[in-house]
Design goal:
This protein is α+β, with helices and mostly antiparallel strands. It has three helices and five strands; from the N terminus they run H-E-H-H-E-E-E-E.
């Protein structure tokens, strides 16, 4: 619990605010990646055919198989990216407990077989307020995805609460 401190906001957070990190680029999406994600997501039901049946998918407005909106091309990375300085705990401040405050997603172009997705992330914002656990820090991290044509695919704002 953060008691007896004036702020939980670190210099690293202030310096990192609104600065995009290095982009990550996915390998091309395979139709089997989409099919397996859909099967896992809808199990034990059969997933909608737009996610796995090419003949059916060609008859839709999309003209081919697309990925479910929640498909995550970065779900199983070979190498995990390092946490940025803004995400690291303060070396001089109190040890904080972190809770997941939820997330909000916005979707654009659907992902398709062959797409290469580029993701970039940043510390979008933060604020402090008093709560029942004392001083609480709300941190908002933004991740944006685009495809190989530069089309917007997804934006996620994730909220962390630290106290």
């Amino acid at each position: 619990m953060a008691t007896g401190v004036e702020t939980l906001i670190t210099r690293a957070m202030i310096e990192a605010k609104e600065i995009w990190g290095e982009p990550r680029v996915s390998p091309p999406i395979a139709a089997s990646d989409i099919r397996r994600w859909a099967i896992a997501t809808y199990w034990p039901e059969t997933p909608p055919p737009i996610y796995w049946d090419e003949a059916y998918a060609r008859t839709t407005r999309w003209g081919g198989v697309i990925a479910p909106p929640d498909f995550n091309r970065f779900a199983w990375p070979v190498r995990r990216p390092a946490a940025g300085a803004a995400a690291a705990p303060s070396e001089t401040g109190p040890r904080l407990t972190t809770m997941n405050g939820g997330q909000t997603d916005a979707y654009g172009a659907p992902m398709r077989p062959g797409d290469v997705i580029t993701a970039r992330s940043r510390l979008a914002d933060f604020n402090e307020r008093q709560g029942r656990f004392g001083l609480m820090l709300y941190v908002f991290n933004e991740t944006e995805w685009t495809n190989q044509d530069g089309a917007f695919v997804r934006r996620r704002i994730g909220t962390s609460i630290r106290y």
